């Protein structure tokens, strides 16, 4: 196979890969993920968004703040000046599941996939934290990249 | 339902709940999660652990460091002086899947579930980052608490 | 005057003062502060808390998160494991002013005044940030300690 | 009123607003603030700047460092590569008051008002911290933007 | 040799070692280090400490703040609530060398050697930063532990 | 002498110097440093890199992550979006010494010397941390800049 893990040099040592010669272009990434919970927990979260105890509002803020810490958390990520982060939640009652989707953007030399994925993960972890007193068995899943725009590799969409 | 989301007060406003009256006891949490990839990507990671390009070694360090940032990422988490963090990986070839499990411990007034779950998430995100040049479609799933010891609620195990 | 600034040693050099011999006791601090704005801005914030665009909900989260960063921001502050942080807002329509009050608590060897004051400042800065597109002239004032409990100096209340 | 709080989308959900299409221009912001203390405390600080126990020198460093953490503290702030930060203090003996003014600059897609205001707040909090052992009643006030240059909105000065 | 690197488990995998069963005792560590420069640079620093341009005052603050970030920088370090940090400088004119010594203390389950060493390193790096415009060839050396008190291993002093 | 410490203004007050008018150019810095240990410790580290207990692999990751925190640690450093970081180790058996060299790059308005030097220091501190259980007397030395490219001052190499 000719493909390689670019985060390692020819000797197999990790490095932060050189992006200095890449163009500064607009780059977008969209990530998603979900957390499944008991129906009673789901009802609590849904009511909170309308009335009080706004779990999703807090998870949204945590996700945005988390996206800004990506290069501190992921060892070989480049620091990136994000130009936009948006976080949406969908409530799927049939499965007692909350789906998050995050769009991250920059004008820079490397992509923002990790920023979008990190934000999605932090959103789900925050929902877990806020509901864990009533439901420890919640599970996070389906965290993945949905779409990617910009840079040399161009447009990519997940299946 | 008499249960409540403890991160909100009687008016529905978020707060960092009072744990000052709780005893300092030994507390343990075990969390897990997995990332599924293409067979070729899985092979690259597996070979790296034996020879060079050590993806899992780096993901382990990222997870340990991430556990220490939990209270910065999750808005209502208490800062906790972790006394132990251990991270293990299992390579499930049949499913081209890597499973992480994290054990976190403290001697403190509140549990370390979020520290274990955050570490597991950061481990998976780091694997994604290091392999994304060859496989953008990897998916993270099954991130959940496996076990919890200590504190008033005692021993809990996931199903 | 026999009193001294304890953050300096006998040679006038800054240090983080020794609190190792102090008892671990429950310590509470309450701080307050306010931001004054145009009546139209005030109306926007007030409506947001009821319906959408929840400025104060976001400022509350920022304040709680900010309190956890106090020892990183204030050079000679000791790192402190906070056991409780609560943030309240009062809307004073007559003056187009929003008043924040923060209660911080720990069980530790030194007080949490700086944590409460830092949280109050971050709450006000966040309100400024979210409203600055419509009102750049907002002013923050009256940021001070209201009350302090615990430690050798005992109970103190501001005038 | 046609004006809107730009940090919320059409549904009232918070987001980090898109600045990707804005030009990279030189942007300057000047913020101010003050802390009022007992005359004896004021005398201690003033002497320290000349001789030993340099409260203001430490507050200046804290302010510069704080400006670099703005996007971590203020949830919807964009990360900005600051190109200059300067911090000045004026000692107003008649009122036992120390006035800080901060100038922040960048070449970027969005303004640096929050960086200047955050630095001013951190300067005042640091002065409070260093003097609180002798004067718990100090009050911070008048924290506001004085001037703003650059960007689409052009030159703005406070009244 | 029967000794082992405790940061690895029996399989050679890194972990944050379990200190939960250790007693909370007073622990002290003293570290040192030096930076050698051109005589003209040395003269500039020495004059600054007396008059203006206080390089060492700023390096002292940076060292204290750096000590609080140790567990973020050193992957397998436990987070530790420092109870005291003191930083001293000695100016050795004969060698155009500035020697830093840092004392760090905690009441905790593990030692503070890394906190003292990290603070010493940050002090030297800060001196380098502030003088590099006039002297790029400065060299940092002799960074080592001088003394260690507390914990099971008791009192240790360097040769 | 006409040279000046640029981190101070005409009044001797520290500031983050204005780099807004500088061009964005490619900038490279190479730094080095070493840690000397007992021969038995050296043998343990060398074996670990081949088999298990990978001290240098972890130190490399810590160095890369540390380089991204430089502007948080060094008070007057500008935040810089690094475009490349590479870390190499050389094992000098005759002296039981491990030499680290770090190359840092950016496309920006100011140099990356401090990023390279900070990364080198963090690498050495991490090696110390991982080996200190068997060898407390290790010494770090020779931390200095080797080379610098880009910016107005052009190419510089250490003697």
TrEMBL record, chains A, B, C, D, E, F:
InterPro entries registered for this protein in UniProt: MoaC (IPR023045), MoaC_bact/euk (IPR047594), MoaC_sf (IPR036522), MoCo_biosynth_MoaA/MoaC (IPR050105), Mopterin_CF_biosynth-C_dom (IPR002820)
Gene name for this UniProt entry: moaC
Name of the protein in question: Cyclic pyranopterin monophosphate synthase
Enzyme Commission number, as recorded: 4.6.1.17
Keyword Lyase tagged: yes
Subunit field text: Homohexamer; trimer of dimers.
Keywords attached to this entry: Lyase, Molybdenum cofactor biosynthesis
Taxonomic source organism: Pseudazoarcus pumilus
Organism ancestry: Bacteria, Pseudomonadati, Pseudomonadota, Betaproteobacteria, Rhodocyclales
Residue ranges occupied by any Molybdopterin cofactor biosynthesis C (MoaC) domain in the UniProt entry: 16-151
Family statement: Belongs to the MoaC family.
